[in-house]
Design brief:
With 173 residues, the chain is of the alpha+beta class. Helices cover 19% and strands 23% of the residues. Strands 1, 2, 3, 4, 5, 6 and 7 form a seven-stranded antiparallel sheet that branches. A hairpin with a 5-residue loop joins strand 4 and strand 5. Helix 2 packs across helix 3. The two termini are 26 Å apart.
């Protein structure tokens, strides 16, 4: 996985690829107490000529920047985000399935961490990316069977529905 960090008011440190594993976090971290966190999800695919293509990382980077501004967080630049995604994919290229057999799912996370129980922006922001191979979600499917629920809403007017806030999906099972 890829790991970088930014202290409040500073730039992100140069990230590095490390083995996938647990992270250490203070129980007072804003991600745990106030949901100050963002995630993205994108995929890398292997082509017939064995190239690996990443689906629209710039768009994910821009959405993360929008979300970071909305949640008063430091954010990696678009270039930093895209380069980190590329490094993660290269480090995990053996896990990109063959053409037509799935993709490498890439999960960037930006979280508010550090000991800060007060209602304020976090003192630091880890930026992590990990990846996992996934199969085709709808292979052979003739369509989706969906239920429209007018009683419960994932996002509300004025909320964080337009960004990938960690709180957007907490009630979904």
């Amino acid at each position: 996985m890829y790991v970088a960090k930014c202290r409040q008011g500073e730039s992100f440190t140069e990230g590095k690829i490390v083995p996938y594993g647990d992270i250490s976090i203070s129980p007072c971290s804003p991600i745990l107490n106030y949901g100050q966190g963002l995630f993205e999800g994108l995929k890398a695919y292997r082509t017939e000529d064995d190239r690996i293509l990443i689906f629209r990382p710039h768009e994910n980077a821009l959405r993360m920047q929008d979300g970071a501004e909305r949640l008063c967080m430091a954010s990696p630049s678009v270039e930093f985000f895209v380069e980190a995604v590329k490094q993660t994919v290269i480090a995990n290229k053996k896990w990109v399935p063959p053409p037509g057999k799935g993709a490498l799912y890439i999960r960037p996370l930006l979280i508010g961490s550090g000991a800060n129980l007060g209602v304020a922006p976090a003192p630091e922001y880890p930026f992590l990316i990990y990846a996992s191979p996934v199969g085709d979600y709808h292979k052979g499917s003739t369509g989706l069977n969906l239920k429209v629920d007018h009683k419960h809403h994932r996002a509300h007017s004025g909320g964080t529905g337009g960004v990938q806030s960690c709180t957007n999906y907490s009630h979904v099972s």
